């Protein structure tokens, strides 16, 4: 995911039903980050892009055709450099993972891993996840959604830029099948508390955790990143939220 220091704000989203969701006119699911691709990432686009990249289109995606099989569909929003995404897909081979990321070096890095490690259950859409959800995926189409370590936008005046806000979660929940799940993770406690408030307020979602604070034990499928391991050694916390669609 990106940080405020090396990003610039993305242009406003052109979303359906904008009059009912003003938040969606102000923020996308990403910010653009400067970055140059290495030669291996450039080659990955050429060599593996045709197999693993799904072009954005403003029409319903034939998911079974895109993956070459029917399987539960998990949407990941913002996978960064794709390390956790690749590991999760490898430990859950019976699920299909549709992954949205606009940061080109990250897309190239995940393409490289998919090709070299033969990870056949990942497809990547290099486009804003809101438009992917609205146009390529229908209501009740997702078995799960992963959003790991979204930008916390630490400064108070930037909190409006945070991804996890009620209009977005309301919209996202409508795309998850009843019984499907939404898994968030953050290493910034104030953001985790805002996330919890937003998730608890969404009537389509129910918390799977019975802990007093509502936070979940980290599911086994989510690996610890190098950054996360370093933070834990320094005493920093990580908060997982796992909610089910009612």
Descriptors:
246 residues, alpha/beta, two-stranded antiparallel sheet, 8 helices, disordered N terminus
Give a verbal description of the structure:
This protein is an alpha/beta fold and 246 residues long. It has helices at 39-52, 63-67, 83-91, 104-116, 129-136, 166-173, 189-201, 226-233, and strands at 7-8, 32-33, 73-77, 96-100, 122-125, 142-148, 176-186, 205-207, 239-245. A 7-stranded mixed sheet has the order 5-4-3-6-7-9-8, with helices on both faces. Helix 3 links the parallel strand 3 and strand 4. Helix 1 (39-52) packs across helix 4. It starts with 6 loop residues before the first strand and ends with a strand.
What's the quaternary structure here? single chain
How much β-strand is present in the residues?
15-25%
Q: Percent of residues in helical segments?
A: 25-40%
N-to-C series of helices and strands: EEHHEHEHEHEHEHEHE
Question: What is the arithmetic mean of pLDDT?
Answer: 88
Distance between the termini: 29 Å
**Global structural class:** alpha/beta
Q: State the strand order across the main sheet.
A: 5-4-3-6-7-9-8
Shape: globular
Radius of gyration (CA) equals: 17 Å
Provide the fold topology.
Blueprint: E1 7-8, E2 32-33, H1 39-52, H2 63-67, E3 73-77, H3 83-91, E4 96-100, H4 104-116, E5 122-125, H5 129-136, E6 142-148, H6 166-173, E7 176-186, H7 189-201, E8 205-207, H8 226-233, E9 239-245
Parallel strand pairs: 3-4, 3-6, 4-5, 6-7
Antiparallel strand pairs: 1-2, 7-9, 8-9
At a glance:
With 246 residues, the chain is of the alpha/beta class. It has 8 helices and 9 strands.
């Amino acid at each position: 995911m990106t940080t405020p220091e090396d990003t610039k704000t993305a242009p406003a989203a052109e979303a359906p039903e904008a009059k009912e969701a003003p938040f969606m006119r102000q923020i996308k699911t990403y910010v653009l980050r400067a970055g140059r691709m290495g030669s291996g990432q450039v080659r990955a686009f050429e060599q593996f892009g045709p197999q693993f990249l799904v072009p954005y289109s403003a029409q319903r995606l034939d998911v079974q055709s895109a993956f070459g099989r029917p399987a539960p569909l998990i949407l990941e929003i913002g996978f960064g450099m794709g390390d956790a995404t690749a590991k999760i897909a490898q430990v859950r081979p019976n699920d299909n993972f549709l992954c949205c990321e606009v940061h080109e070096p990250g897309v190239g890095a995940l393409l490289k891993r998919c090709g070299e490690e033969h990870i056949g259950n990942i497809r990547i859409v290099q486009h804003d996840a809101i438009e992917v959800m609205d146009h390529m995926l229908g209501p009740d189409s997702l078995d799960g959604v992963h959003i790991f370590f979204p930008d916390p936008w630490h400064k108070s005046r930037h909190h409006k830029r945070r991804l996890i806000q009620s209009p977005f979660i309301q919209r996202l929940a409508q795309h998850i099948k009843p019984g499907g799940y939404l898994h968030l993770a953050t290493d910034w406690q104030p953001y985790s508390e805002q996330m919890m408030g937003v998730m608890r307020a969404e009537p389509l979602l129910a918390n799977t955790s019975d802990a007093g604070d509502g936070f979940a034990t980290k599911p086994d499928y989510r690996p610890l990143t190098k950054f996360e391991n370093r933070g834990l050694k320094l005493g920093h916390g990580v908060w997982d939220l796992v909610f089910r669609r009612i």
